[in-house]
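Chapter review: from sequence to fold.
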Amino acid sequence: AVLAGVPRVVLSSRNMRPTHFAYHQPYMASAYRALAGVARVTLVNNSLAGARDYADWLGIDPKRFIVKRNGIDTRLFRRPPAADIAAFRAGLGLPPEACLVGAVFRLYPEKRPLLWIQMAALVAQEDHAVHFAIFGTGPLTDDTRTLANRLGLGDRLHLPGTTQSPYLAISAMDVFVLTSGFE
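The token string follows.
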């Protein structure tokens, strides 16, 4: 867009700087720095922590970023009806009375899914009826499943993959646990 002469460009980052993630590439810092040096490029991040982290990484003034926090349209995202939640839970194979501890996240190192499984194993030792579910996929899916099996979670861990209804998945949970190193 800059090379094509677009008069106003918005460069939006939705997290912390790329060095924290598997997708990071060495060229990224110089590319971001070059774009940050163009006055018609507006830098936006969804959190103050993310904006500061990017600014530190790029060696630029954090005030160069505008912070626009994530929002939720409450007209679209409301707690689903009890019957929908019950059907969703039944689709996971949960007994109707089971407590469900769950999460929705990518199975990537920064989300720490193996720590989540260790937490689940500790809870499972205390309560033999509780079930667990992680909605998401990623390169640590097999490691997550392997550790869960090794720690005895067996059929109480549900890894249904990515969900098209995260609000329904979260509504089906009794407890939501997030083990990310940062958000």
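Two observations follow directly from the output. Helices lie at 28-36, 48-58, 82-91, 113-126, 141-150, 166-171. The chain has a mean pLDDT of 94.
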